[in-house]
Amino acid sequence: MASCARCFRRMYRDQFAYQPVTLAPPVQLDNATMGQGVVLVKNGRRICGTGAARANCPVSQDKAYWEVKLQSCGSWGIGLGTVRCDLESPNNLGSDAESWALRDDAAIYHGNQPVAKLPDPVQEGDVIGLTYDHVTLEVFLNGKPMHTPVTGIRGTVFPTFYVDDGAILDCAFAAFAFGPPAGFRELIKEKQLL
């Protein structure tokens, strides 16, 4: 049997040349578009400083999930923003028509108005999961659904995060603490969809 394998390998070795596989860069926070006062560490997974940053790719697939661990309290916001969302001003996410954000007061804002309120407060060490299906943004707290859907979100949006007053957020776009609900999966880049 071993001699057959060697013979086969000699006959066809040129047809099976080594071709390296190029992996797409991972989804992470985008240091090219972040606010000037933002500091990204841990390979683009931790945000601190003052301002906002967004993921390096928009939500392209039908049902996406990502998580954020609140490492240190302060002023923070997590959610979705368009490419026109202001990333310079702290506390700006959710204050205009370009973003939807869960803030540190446990309310979800859009147009500077609270559109939903979590039944439980978010505390240091908590993991916040978010799902988005191109219409509805849902929030999970430590794996438990909060039943506070925000609907009517349309267009190209990015997972977006802001910090101020000492807040530190760890963002997870894969290898989750609690994992996505049924039908949802990690955020993937558009080129990986093909």
Automatic annotation (TrEMBL):
Record Gene3D superfamilies: 2.60.120.920
- The entry's protein name is SPRY domain-containing protein 7
Q: Report domain B30.2/SPRY positions.
A: 1-183
Q: Which domain of life is it from?
A: Eukaryota
Query: Which InterPro entries does the annotation name?
Result: B30.2/SPRY, B30.2/SPRY_sf, ConA-like_dom_sf, SPRY_dom, SPRYD7
What's one Pfam family here?
SPRY
